[in-house]
Write a structure and sequence with these properties.
One of its GO terms (molecular function) is proline dehydrogenase activity. By secondary structure, the protein is of the alpha/beta class. It has one domain: TIM Barrel (Alpha-Beta Barrel), CATH 3.20.20. The protein is built from 13 helices and 8 strands. It has an 8-stranded parallel beta barrel with strand order 1-2-3-4-5-6-7-8, surrounded by 7 helices. The longest helix is centred in the first third of the chain and has 20 residues. The chain is globular, with a radius of gyration of 18 Å.
Length: 303
């Protein structure tokens, strides 16, 4: 119920306009967002690198309404890739295709993202294409496959709560396309996704083991200590080296667990979002964990 409520709020445009201009809300967003500017995100990235943590930078935004906006997003990401390289930051970028015009023109979206993947390949970097709601899965996978065949330097995200993900991962492993596995943060019908958390978790474990066995440098994205523990046990039992995969977590969530993973010798990358369009991302984080809601309420009454 709480999850559905916050996902509903994430789509409310009037509330979004108020939140993104409210000084109080902006202060609270700093729990999960590195800042509004690239410079702020780079400063956070340097601090994380010093702690032994790599990053993937995400310039927040999705569902643009014009191709001009899509091209602006492309240019921001181009500057981000160049800044990561120039600053010798251990990191790459993550992006959403609807920010690059997927709802408006597949061809324009492909052209925009191809410029970034080509540049990433030139710099020895990498572009991770985030997965959005189920209606975008086929187009997202088609675009990633096209760019991977042309340039490499691109991977994708698969969500364990979708029934189709088992087949998608089998194909992606065969194609040697890098995958980040997460549970999924969008509200989906029971006809497409597991409605019960226990089934989502079971799917996550199964898909994690497939990726670790057959995938190319998979990213295991979770804050769930049980999932992390099972991953550790599996790689140990199979003799899979810690250099063969990485854990991924979100900036601002479970810093204690992040420190422990690094101390134990595991590779960890944080998803570091920045930008002014932080509201939908922020609401999805609240939807995922009730503890995040309590944190916000406590701090709200302190302001």
């Amino acid at each position: 119920m709480v999850r559905a409520f916050f996902l509903f709020l994430s789509r409310q445009k009037q509330l979004r306009r108020w939140m993104e201009t409210s000084p109080v809300a902006q202060r609270l967003s700093k729990r999960f967002v590195a800042g509004e500017t690239l410079e702020q995100a780079l400063a956070v990235s340097r601090k994380l690198n010093k702690q032994g943590i790599t990053v993937t930078l995400d310039h927040l935004g999705e569902s643009v309404t014009s191709l001009a906006e899509a091209r602006e997003a492309r240019d921001v990401y181009r500057r981000t890739l160049d800044a990561i390289h120039a600053g010798d930051i251990q990191g790459n970028v993550s992006l959403k295709l609807t920010q690059f015009g997927l709802d408006l023109s597949y061809e324009e979206c492909l052209a925009n993202v191809e410029q970034l993947v080509r540049r990433a390949a030139e710099l020895g970097s990498f572009v991770r294409v985030d997965m959005e709601s189920s209606e975008y899965v086929d187009r997202t996978l088609d675009l990633v496959r096209t760019l991977h065949a042309r340039h490499g330097a691109v991977g994708v995200v698969i969500q364990s709560y979708l029934y189709r993900s088992k087949d998608d991962i089998a194909k992606l492993c065969a194609e040697k396309i890098r995958v980040r596995l997460c549970k999924g943060a969008y509200l989906e019908p029971a006809s497409l996704a597991f409605p019960q958390k226990s089934d989502v978790d079971r799917s996550y474990v199964e898909l994690t083991q497939k990726l670790l066995t057959y995938g190319v440098y998979p990213a295991i994205a979770t804050h769930d200590e049980a999932m992390i523990g099972q991953t550790k046990q599996f790689v140990s039992s199979k003799g899979i080296g810690r250099e063969c995969f990485e854990f991924q977590m979100l900036y601002g969530i479970r810093a204690d667990l992040q420190r422990q993973l690094v101390a134990d010798g595991y590779r960890l990358r944080l998803y570091v979002p920045f930008g002014k369009a932080w509201y939908p991302y922020y609401m999805r984080r609240l939807a995922e964990r009730p503890a995040n809601v309590l944190f916000i309420l406590r701090n709200l009454f302190r302001t």
